Amino acid sequence: MKTVLITAFEPFENETVNPSWEAVRQLDQHIIAGAKVVAKQLPCVFGQSLDTLCSAIENLQPELVIAVGQAGGRVDITLERIGINVDDARIADNHGNQPVDMPVVTGGPAAYFSTLPIKAMVEAIRQAGIPASVSQTAGTFVCNHVMYGLLHHLQQNGNRTRGGFIHIPYLPEQAARHAGTASLSAETVIAALETAIAVALRTEEDSRISGGTTH
User: Fold this and answer.
1) What is the dihedral of CA 46, 51, 56, 57, to 10 degrees?
2) 3-state DSSP assignment of residue 93
3) In angstroms, rounded to a whole number, what is the distance separating the alpha carbons of residues 15 and 205?
4) Given 123, 143, 145, 152, which residue is catalytic?
5) What is the bridge-based pairing of β-strands 132-135 and 64-70?
6) What is the reported pLDDT for 75?
7) Is-contact 85 111, C-beta < 8 A?
8) Residue 101: helix, strand or coil by DSSP?
9) Domains of the chain, start order
10) Is 205 a catalytic residue?
């Protein structure tokens, strides 16, 4: 049976929960489109997060790797197009590290594009009645660190596994403490992730539809 590795982060920046893990952990051991989903929590720590992720990839040899993270302030499910080779932390990670203008991988390419069919995934999530869009930046914190590091690992190891990153908004209980911010329930996020996984498993070539922005 095929395996899908889906990861999420522990809480960070004074939050008591991370919506990514609250959703992802509930998918562990589920069967979606004939594949077994394995959920793994990553530390919100530069370096250590990639060590944990790469170890899981080597152990599981998954068909897909989808990393999920919190993006407080975003209004929908956002599928990331690109990870860039820079760590530039606005805040410290959970071990107090705060790299500024440092490469994720010394000597690595400037960027990697997601190898998931992100536009087909966005389209299917929207058809399920859940707001979603393509995002052009995964930021420069641990989420981007993981996205870039994931894609670099797959490329360097000649791995046919496809991978990418999805950002999700706050949970309602988090948004209640951040006036004016959007939220999605864990149940809604789970439904979106189930749809995303199913589409990624059955779609080899992405849809050729607009996913760009003007700014």
Assistant:
1) 100
2) coil
3) 38
4) 143
5) unpaired
6) 97
7) yes
8) coil
9) 2-202 (3.40.630.20)
10) no
CB 163 within 8 A of CB 115: yes
Strand partners, 164: 66
- Any catalytic annotation for residue 167? yes
In the numeric block, the tokens 């050729």 are attached to 208
Which one is catalytic: 80, 123, 152, 194? 80
Consecutive H or E run containing 82: strand 82-84
- Sheet with strand 35-42: strands edge to edge: 31-32, 35-42, 2-9, 64-70, 162-168, 77-80, 132-135
Quick one: tokens of 41? Answer: 């929590």
pLDDT tens-digit map of 10-57: 999 999 999 999 999 999 999 999 999 999 999 999 999 999 999 999
**CA–CA distance, 213 with 11 (Å, rounded to integer):** 30
User: DSSP label at 87?
Assistant: B
Tokens, residue 163: 């991978």
CB 121, CB 209: distance < 8 Å: no
| Catalytic-labelled residue, pool 145, 152, 153, 167 | 167
Residue 158: predicted pLDDT: 84
C-alpha 44/C-alpha 46 separation (Å) is 7
